[in-house]
Amino acid sequence: MSDKPGPKAPEQDIVLRVNDLHTYFYTDLGISRALNGVSFDIPVGKVMGVVGESGCGKSVTALSIMRLLPKSSKIIKGDITYFRRPQHNGSAGASDQIKQKSENGQQGFWIDENAGKVQEIRLNDLDPMGPEMRHIRGAELAMIFQEPMTSLNPVYTIGDQISETIMLHQRVNKAEGLRRAIDILEKVGMSNPKLIVGNYPHQLSGGMRQRAMIAMGLSCHPAVLFADEPTTALDVTTEAQILDLMRDLQAQFGTTIVFITHNLGVVAQMCDSVSVMYLGRIIEQTSVDEIFYNPKHPYTSALLNSIPHIGSRSKERLQPIRGVVPDPYSKIVGCPFHPRCNAFMPGKCDKAMPAQTVISPGHNVRCFLYSDEVEE
Ligand SMILES: Nc1ncnc2c1ncn2[C@@H]1O[C@H](COP(=O)(O)OP(=O)(O)OP(=O)(O)O)[C@@H](O)[C@H]1O
Ligand SMILES: [Mg+2]
Fold first, then answer.
1. pLDDT at residue number 109
2. pTM value?
3. If we measure between CA atoms, which residue out of 12, 16, 39 comes closest to residue 280?
4. N or C: lower Cβ tally within 10 Å for the chain?
5. Pocket residues for ligand 1 (CB within 6 Å)?
């Protein structure tokens, strides 16, 4: 089973390619099929939104790419390819890895003659805790989590935590690490960063902790930043400030961002393209304009109808999507959305899985309303 993404952009424009990714959890209740063939390309310097109801596999997609999955889970199929740009090649950390590898006689992972070229690295072949992946994580691919307290260490100061990341990946001394930490805290709009570096996470408000997380994520100027619901826990004013800040930083550093959110308003504000997920698959992928003005999949339309939008009359009722996302332990025959779908075609949607179809350039959808093609 695989999603076939639309026409592939030339590789020089892509920073990350995920192809037919299957990630399962092995639990006492059985096998939870969290991802069932996720495919997408992320172009360099763009913001891709990932939306879908709770439990659709948004976080598991990011954690699979970051190789941060818990031990109970496994990538059972598929490829994750990271296209490393020259500016990320030959960074201090990478050079050290070359040295380390050649000293113990193993084949070099970072090859000097590749400096200046785009390197193709299959992340799923790397040991999640090995030196290569540990270098890539943090320095080249970074993640901001929904709840900062899960990733900020309560017993270290903010300054220690950010400077440690910088020291680890950029080989600078502690004083320089701290100076850069203050600098990045200032960039993320933290007032009085010189004081903040001496604070522990519990001494900061939720919005300040979120800014500290963003600072940590951006401190090594990663190629790709995964932002998993980075503002959901915040009040709307702080949320708006943080989103503005992320947009500014994205423009300044050219960072590619994968923005995971429930909030389609945030998608409209932040993203260039959108992937809509349902039960471990991407069911529609297109530009942000197309999603709002020309949605194709009944699930995407249902998501849009369930949120208020400008221009809707005040007495107009929002339409929640009926039913719930099925649990990932069950195996649904046919399109996984058919039990909840207003356009359900008996004998068709409950018999086979629709294939991912390109309906216009850059717009893919997985639905029998647009094509009879069945996924093998
Ligand atoms: N540690 C785990 N053990 C078993 N199943 C898990 C585990 N983590 C995630 N899953 C399952 O994988 C599926 C996808 O979960 P995921 O966290 O990616 O959803 P999500 O789209 O990020 O949802 P939310 O919007 O609530 O954050 C869910 O059905 C979930 O139950
Ligand atoms: Mg999640």
1. 43
2. 0.86
3. 39
4. C
5. 25, 27, 32, 34, 52, 54-60, 70, 72, 262, 328
